[in-house]
Amino acid sequence: MLDIKFIRENSDVVKKACSLKNINLNLDEILRLDKEIVQLRQEEQAHLTSKNALTAKIPKASAEERPSLIQESKALDEKVKIIKPQIEKIEKELTDLMYLVPQIPSPKAPIGKDDGDNVEVKKWGELPKFDFTPLDHVQLLEKNNWADFERIAKVSGSRSYSLKNEMVLVELAMHRMAMDKLMSKGFTLVSVPAFAREEALYGTGHFPNGRDQAYFIPEQNVYLAGTAEVQINSLHAGEMLKESDLPLLYAGYSPCFRSEAGSYGRDVRGLIRVHQFMKVEQYILCKNDPTESERWHQILLETSEEIVKDLELPYRIVECCTGDMGAGKVRMYDVEAWVPSEQKYRETHSCSSLHDWQARRTNVRYRDNEGKVQYVHTLNNTAIATPRILVPFLENHQMADGKIRIPKALRPYLTGQEFIGK
Description:
Layout: H1 4-9, H2 11-20, H3 27-57, H4 66-98, E1 119-124, H5 137-143, E2 147-148, H6 150-156, E3 162-163, H7 166-184, E4 188-191, E5 195-196, H8 198-204, E6 215-217, E7 222-224, H9 229-233, E8 240-242, E9 248-257, E10 276-286, H10 290-310, E11 315-319, E12 331-339, E13 344-355, H11 357-362, E14 365-367, E15 373-375, E16 377-386, H12 390-396, E17 404-405, E18 419-420
Parallel strand pairs: 4-9, 8-14
Antiparallel strand pairs: 1-11, 2-3, 5-7, 6-7, 9-10, 10-16, 11-12, 12-13, 13-16, 14-15, 17-18
Helix pairs in contact: 3-4, 5-12
């Protein structure tokens, strides 16, 4: 969410941001509603001021004057009563539209329409060369009895999976490795519930757009969240922090749920595009300073790179263009790991800087050292998400006999094993 004052004074900038991010929004309607509210409030205040002046006169008025003064006061009360619901109605319309206003993208962000215009900024690692016919991740899982897809689908529906045996331990090992790294970097490790109230999803910007991606539990009036970002972003909602409290570094561990609406028929094999997954999410609240925010953005990105390197996976980094970064983002990078069976890179981490766009939605502020009230900046990035990362992990580390080589950094979390599998 942007400041309405900023929108009034920079409407051309905001309209350009809408265009760059492919957001169809009538900004002139927002400005019209804002102007109408200002006029109604001024009218309301004028009536209240007149009423207060009359009220002050009544005790000193003569018996003959008093009835007419009282009648005038009541008439002004009625006018205020008529205006109040008008203001409330227009405020609701304006708020609904304000939730759709995008953040202004960084001038450094590449301009483009969709992910085809994303810009590769880095590559790391050598792509594997196999002297045998490699298997894809589903074949490897089935060969080693590491997953069940068909039986669990009968129980839980499509896009479900059940990991088995050593693969359960590999998944846990990856999360533990990522958590240890984040704790060593000063992050506070938190586990969060799978569900959140509607206002928390508005707070991150997952709502109102994206509602079709969330599972709703009507009896409890809560939604299953697709990332711990949702819950962590609202942990300090409505709070006034001190500058000395910042930055706040969180590593959120949680089950995540996404309906994957609109993706039917695409990437549905095995562990790709499943409805439920586990994730450790990096989340930062820092000072309202673009330079400081950019520094933390790079730290988040570097931390994810370290994790992918620890897993010895070839990867690349792409900077997302304006049309692919999402409404709230100032700047965004994706880390993509190589998937041999598809001969392409697949996204494993998404690293975003949002400045004060989320903090304005959740009203998270701090008083700086000069006493000025500021909204915090927020940033997020994946640390590890499973089973997504298992796809490149299995395929890149497979051996001719179907076994999987365990990277050195992960071995301490798997009792020192160098290989797993039959």
